[in-house]
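Thread amino acids onto this structure.
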């Protein structure tokens, strides 16, 4: 048995789960919103004693892999409608700035033009902070977070923002996830002895 797949998902109070057995669609409603997802028809999703349980019909490789996946997706739906998901990013580099205008995000990333980002419905940009360079932290220019109830959408939006200006391995400038460690390379002059 899959250790992830067989673990029950505790449904907290205030969360309503509806399971449609016809097409294996699950609707989860909570204080933050509502999420709907259709799962593979071979996975059996049931509610028992205030928990959700996922069962598989056989021990084939496909059913074993779907077992853990289905349970993880269901758990993410329950977590999303109760607490939500958040991914923090930071801008490193002189002159890199970020500003929120309504629901849009205006980013200065060293291009000749500002980059405008409009997040999709269900995803928002929050906690936008801009820093002035100091001697202790001369590279951190701004910090902001991507928040939403759908983990997949939040991760996709954060990856798209990071892709706009990936961190440079020489100076470390760019958009990175908070806490991400960038492998730094030595420049040309560092490899040779100067005479």
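Threaded sequence (195 positions):
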């Amino acid at each position: 048995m899959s250790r992830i797949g067989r673990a029950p998902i505790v449904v907290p109070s205030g969360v309503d789960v509806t399971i449609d057995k016809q097409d294996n669609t699950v609707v989860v409603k909570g204080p933050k919103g509502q999420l709907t997802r259709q799962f593979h028809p071979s996975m059996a999703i049931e509610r028992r004693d205030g928990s959700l349980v996922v069962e598989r019909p056989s021990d084939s490789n496909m059913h074993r892999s779907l077992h853990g996946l289905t349970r993880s997706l269901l758990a993410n739906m329950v977590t999303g409608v109760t607490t939500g998901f958040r991914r923090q990013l930071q801008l490193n580099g002189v002159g890199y700035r970020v500003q929120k205008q309504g629901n849009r995000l205006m980013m200065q990333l060293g291009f000749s033009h500002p980059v405008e980002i409009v997040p999709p419905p269900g995803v928002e940009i929050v906690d936008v902070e801009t820093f002035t360079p100091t001697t202790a932290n001369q590279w951190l220019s701004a910090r902001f977070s991507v928040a939403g109830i759908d983990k997949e959408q939040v991760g996709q939006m954060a990856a798209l923002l990071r892709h706009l200006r990936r961190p440079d391995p020489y100076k470390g400038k760019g958009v990175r996830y908070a806490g991400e460690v960038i492998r730094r390379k030595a420049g040309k002059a560092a490899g040779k002895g100067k005479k």
